[in-house]
Amino acid sequence: MKVLVVGGAGYIGSHMVLMLAERGHEVVVLDDLSSGHRDAVLAGSFIEGSIADAALLDRVLAAQRFDGVMHFASFIQVGESVLEPAKYYRNNFSHTLTLLDAMVRHDVKRFIFSSTAAVYGEPQRTPIDESHPCAAINPYGRSKRMVEEALADYDRAYGLKSVCLRYFNAAGADPQGRIGERHEPETHLIPLVLQAAAGKRPHIAVYGNDYPTPDGTCIRDYIHVVDLCAAHLLALDRLMQGSDSATYNLGNGAGFSIREVIAAAARVTGRDIAVAEAARREGDPAVLVAAPDKARKELDWRPRHAALDEIIGDAWRFHSAH
After folding, report:
1. Is 140 a catalytic residue?
2. Which of 62, 196, 212, 268 falls 20 to 30 Å from 89 in CA-CA distance?
3. pTM of the predicted model, to two decimals?
4. Residues with Cβ < 8 Å from 130, sequence gap 6 or more?
5. Which DSSP letter does residue 291 get?
6. Angle between helix 139-158 and helix 95-105 axes, rounded to 10 deg
7. Contact 36, 51 (CB under 8 A)
8. Which segments of 79-218 are extended strands (E)?
9. For position 177, what pLDDT does the model report?
10. Measured CA distances, 12 to 227, 232, 261 (Å)
11. How many whole angstroms separate alpha carbon 17 and alpha carbon 5?
12. Of 11, 88, 140, 211, which residue is the catalytic one?
């Protein structure tokens, strides 16, 4: 297949590019490098530019015939989205419409969208399956949900088929240590814990220790970035075979608490990790765990790297090398 990967210089996108190339597919990366890294693109051809640039999209899509587009070009910081909602609605929603419109103009019919469990908002039940009501509680989650709703309309009106993949907590890195997670600023737990292990920060903050969980800290579902990418490839294969649009949760179906993550990081790194207790953060549910049964059944997807020590070990390998 020939695949256009937008946001392919970012964390998940760069791993996707590498997997596509290693499976023998032709890849073109489009990224404006606002948060991605040019040196993370280890395969394919690279175009620096934004999905907001309709003229550029027309040139790219007219010059080559793509079997599908994978979209990773979103802003992802929940807290920032509350402070700067315009930034998130503009990039995550409006600019995505610009991309979809270009695809319609050039008859590109398959789209894989990087969505999020944040579309569900406060969970009414857990584990969360795809029938759970969508009631996002921040602009980040709402911007992603708006794209999902637009995609359903684009399918009905223009025949643009899509798969929306709702991630829970992406983590880990390329097992060979070539690429990994490099957000600025970093907000994800595992890289923050590893920074504390490496002495790059004095401690890791634990926000709340009185949740109704076995050790009092929040429980989250961590999914290895390589397993996420495998699901994207299976989703595109499914569309290539003529399947209808669909939505899937991507998670391991099991959760780990904050304290379990810290303990695993200490085991993997062999280092003491200082912890600072802090007050709960508003909007942090006690438990967020996926019910990934639909992806397992329809995509034949199975996470191959579900062990927490393996996820953290791969992240540490990259962190140590860079």
Report:
1. yes
2. 62
3. 0.96
4. 166, 247, 248, 249, 294
5. -
6. 20
7. no
8. 110-116, 161-167, 169-171, 204-207
9. 95
10. 11, 11, 21
11. 7
12. 140
The predicted structure's pLDDT at residue 183: 84
Rounded to whole angstroms, how far apart are CA atoms 106 and 65?
9
- Give residue 312's pLDDT: 98
Cα(208)–Cα(258) distance, integer angstroms: 10
Q: Which two tokens stand for residue 283?
A: 């909007």
Positive/negative CA dihedral, 317, 319, 320, 322: positive
The rounded distance, in Å, linking the Cα atoms of 39 and 93 is 27
Transcribe 16-42 into DSSP letters.
HHHHHHHTT-EEEEEE--SSS-GGG--
Q: Where are the alpha helices (H) located in 66-110, listed in sequence order?
A: 78-83, 85-88, 95-105
- Is the link from the previous residue into 185 a cis peptide, with omega within 30 of 0? yes
Residue 283 has pLDDT above 80, yes or no: no
How many alpha carbons fall within 13 Å on the CB side of residue 61?
A: 24
Mean pLDDT of 43-55: 98
Residue 285 in this model has a pLDDT that exceeds 90 = no
Over residues 151-179, the mean pLDDT reads: 97
| Domains parsed from the chain with CATH numbers | 2-171+223-250 (3.40.50.720), 189-220+253-321 (3.90.25.10)
Q: Each residue of 253-262: pLDDT tens digit?
A: 999 999 999 9
